[in-house]
Amino acid sequence: MLDTRSTQAHHAEPDSDEKRWDELSIGPVPDTVARALEAARFHPESSHFCVPSRFSPEGNYRGAWMVADDARVAVVTVNGAGVAEVTWEASISEVRQATIHSVTGGGSLILHLSDGPKEITRFDVGQTSLFGGFAHCLKRQSERLNDPDNAPAGTMRAECRQVLEKQRALYCSKCRRLLPRNTSICRFCVEKGSTLRRILTFSLPYWRYLALMAFLMVGGTALQLIPPQITRVLIDDVLLSPDQQHRLLGLVGLMAFVMIVVCGVGIARARLGIWVGCHVTNDVQARAFNHLQALSLSFFNKQQTGALMSRVNNDARQMQGFLVDGIQYTAVNILTVIGVAAVLIWMNPFLGMLVLLPTPFVVLLSAYVWRRIGRRFRLLWVAMASVTSYLNDALSGIRVIKSFGREESEKERFSRRLAHARSRTIAAEQTWQTLVPILNLIVQSSLLLVWYFGAFEVYGGRLTVGGLVAYVGYLGMIYGPLQLLTRLNDWLTRSLTAAARIFEVLDTQADIEEKSDAVAMPDVSGNIQVRNVTFGYEKHLPVLKHVSLDIPAGEMVGLVGKSGAGKSTLINLIGRLYDVDEGEILLDGVNLRDIKVQHLRQNIGFVLQDTFLFNGTVAENIAYARPNADRVEVLKAAVSANAHGFIMNLPDGYDTIVGERGARLSGGERQRIAIARTLLQDPKILILDEATSSVDTETEARIQHALAHLVRGRTTLAIAHRLSTLRHATKLVVIEDGEIVEEGTHAELMSREDGIYRKLVTIQTEWSRVIGVGA
Amino acid sequence: MNDRNNAPHEPEDTNLTVKVEPEKLIWLDPQRLSFRDPGAGRPISMTIADDRTYRSIFALRAFPRQEPNGFIQIFQGNTDETRGEMVGMIRGIAQLRQSDAETLAEALRRSYLVPRITAILELEEHRFMARWVVDTDRGVRSFDMYQPHRNVIGSGSGRVLMVDVEENRYEIPDVEDLDDASRRRLDRVL
Question: Is A532 left (phi over 0), alpha (psi -120 to 50) or beta?
Answer without folding.
Answer: left
